[in-house]
Amino acid sequence: MTLRDEIAALREEVAKLSQQQQLQQQAASAAPPPPPPPPSNDQAAAAEDQPTRIGPEELIAAANSVIDELQQDIDKYPRLTAIAAFGLGLAVGIFAGRQSR
Q1: Least crowded by CB within 10 Å, which of 52, 67, 89, 97?
Q2: 3-state helix, strand, coil in the chain (%, to 5)
Q3: Is the pLDDT of residue 44 over 70?
Q4: Are 74 and 66 in contact (CB under 8 A)?
Q5: What is d(CA 70, CA 77) in angstroms, rounded to the nearest whole number?
Q6: 0.70 surpassed by pTM
């Protein structure tokens, strides 16, 4: 299979998926959504237990404070620092991806 064939197959698949989404949206807009059930005491307690969402500024501020605290260890353990930087970059990437949805 050549690259052109793969691109054409992907375009067909995307077209089919977009048609399915349009049909689902039309079906969803035709039927009124059912009313949500009233929150129970268990749901209210679970909502309070969930951590609050933080924004990108708070995430960067937290990362900077940790870096400041561990400045001496960063120079002492370069491999561990590289792994931590990779993990932080991965977390920021996931965070940015979820925010863009």
Answers
A1: 52
A2: 80, 0, 20
A3: no
A4: no
A5: 10
A6: no
